[in-house]
TrEMBL record:
Belongs to the disease resistance NB-LRR family. Pfam families: NB-ARC (PF00931), RPW8 (PF05659). It comes from the Eukaryota. This is NBS-LRR protein. One of its GO terms (biological process) is defense response. PROSITE patterns: RPW8. Residues 1-149 form the RPW8 domain. It comes from Cicer arietinum.
Amino acid sequence: MDLLSGGAVGAVMGEIVKHAIQTIKKGRDFGPTLEKNIETLNNLAPLIEEMKEYNDLLDRPRDEIEKLEKHIREGQELVTKSKKLNRWKFPSFPRYQSKLQKKDEALQRHLSVNVQVENRRDLMEVLGKVNGILEILMRKENLGQFNNNNIGNQIKGLNGAPEEPECLGMVEPLNKLKGELLKDGVSVLVLTGLGGSGKSTLAKKLCWVPPIKDKFGRNIFFVTVSKTPNLKNIVRTLFEYCGSRVPEFQSDEDAINQLGRLLRQVGRRPILLVLDDVWPRSEGLIEKFKFQISDYKILVTSRVAFRRFGTPFQLDPLDHHHAVSLFHHFAQLNDSSSYMPDKNLVHEIVRGCKGSPLALQVIAGSLCKQPFEKWQSMKGRLQSQSILESNSTDLLCYLQQSLDILEDINEKECFMDMGLFPEDQRIPVTVFIDIWAELHNLDEDGTNAMVIVHDLTTRNLINVIATRKVATETDMYYNNHYVMLHDLLQELAILQSKEKPFEERKRLIIDLSGDNRPDWWIGQNQQGVISRMYSSIAGMLVKQNQLKVAARILSISTDETFSSDWCDMQPDEAEVLVLNIRSDNYSLPDFTNKMSKLKVLIVTNYGFHRSELTKFELLGFLSNLKRIRLEKVSVPSLCRLKNLRKLSLHMCNTTHAFESWSIQISEAMPNLVEMSIDYCSDLIKLPDGFCNITSLKKLSITNCHKFYVMPQDISKLENLEVLRLCSCSDLVEISESVGGLKKLRCLDISDCVNLPKLPNDIGDLEKLEKLYMKGCSNLSELPYSVLSFANSKHEIYVICDEEGAELWEIFSYIPNLKIKMPKVDINLNWLHGTRS
């Protein structure tokens, strides 16, 4: 075939070659080199044409041809320049001859090396396709054998994925999850959420979503793991799903190795492996299924957020709109029925289901095509009692499994403590630290308590919200951390506490509204005799007989209409008293002084105004009381609390307590170890004699904007280890004697915006490890005593912002001085989770 025809390499390349030959012919004086180039081009032309034909036939890539064409294109400039050569430029012929020779050599190298390697690769690819054809034929044969043995009936949908389920109300999470799985680089994705939240349903639906189905095809494998997984059985199932003969496995390791080889064979297309219902402590099992295969994804569904595999995909309860849609579906409200409820009734019942897909299914199913009276009855029950107690046995059993995964008895007990507080409220983590330190002998700084909190969070039983968090915070300071939990889980915690008769319960949870009282409140002798309309009379009659209570924890919630008519209770064994109040005036129960074993008192006002707290003197009779936390109350004059170790005041009015004492605070609380005052807007200074509490180790005064000066004799606090004065905007002075705090490890003056200087003797703090001073915008210089930090035997971290770092720059040569500028995360989302 003549090279000049141009048919071999297309019109464009034909023109290039044509010009090349014409130019070469014009320069025949170049001699043998030109003849060699012409011969090479003529020989290549038919080969290129054949390659293109085969490429089109086999739908193969054109890499090889494009590389050849690249060599010719690179010669185009040379050819163009050669065309311009004439006899007057004869001296240039040798140079162009050299270029043509090099171009020819490059082409020869390409043909002798690259093309041979490409041929080898093509041969291996052909062999691979032949093996693939043989495998398909074997798979069909094996499938025939499976069908003969009725094993093929176990294969449903896409290689184990069950029938496509309804997934109403979950469009948004479905789309987000789909997007996560279609991303590059995702190897393991954990879908986690509360029991009954629809994790498995969503995973099953995902297998049938067109983009997922199109990408992974038949390489979608769905396996239910369960509580006691058998690895060999799971691998056998995957072999069956692949249509391959199931070999005998010598060990779990052998099973995984053979599975890896199998998946690499089918892995020419992306693979999605769904491990459904994975229980705690199964991280190792998930790890075994991780293989280095391109585009291989694992989706795990679990009540546990296995964070070692990255940020989990959290499945939250349904919002009201989607919950109504799901309820309509299960109640068949679009079909003919004996009763069609009005919209308001439906909405009230749906709200009672708390956004749980399982609860919506159970309740809607029980009401499907039922008469009006059944619907009204369900509404009443949902409003008057827990959904778990109202025709929801399936839901209760399902949620109970969430507690079964707690292997540590302490963790289960700690979860049940979540029911001590009102629903839809944020609960300070420090409250649980106080309770658990005394009930379960956990450490006082909260380390072990936070381990439990994180475990409960990982298992989706609670949520932890940090309203303000510094990235490098490691000082065990949790005043900005709060716990919230789903209503259903709180009801579950309360229900667990009610399993035994009230006189045998570890936790006695009492909810009092107005004059309404529980039956046992009016005495067992009066039950069924005195009707509810005479409950106030019953309250008086019960005082004739004292009520014995054996609970270790007593939680009493009252609303603004509570009449303060207390039962003559004898909570002799109570170690924790939790009072949840909503009234402007509140008296401690008369029986408080009988609680000889009481160790922890928590009083929290959820009302709008601060509550005037009275009968506080009853606490003076309690020699075992170690911890008191008061929130949103006006603190009365504190009585003698000889053994009190920790006092926490949050959003309290402290004027009366701190300025009207007949005795000094050091005499009233001589053994105080920790004091926390937060958001107490009326606090101006600490009471006289405060620095005589030499046992004090931690003092936190935070967000008290009127607090303006520290005591001059603060050095008397010889055991003080932590001093926090953050966000006290009016603070203008820190006593010079602060250098006398020889045990101080942590000093926090963050966001004290009007503080003009640090104490001159701050360098005398021999034990100082951390100095927090972010947001101290009024500081313009540092005292030279900080040079003494060079003598410290340990590293000193200064946590500050950019302005603070500039102040410390001249001292940066001090080897053990470390300047940190962390990012601050301010999160106000928790505000949406409260009603008060």
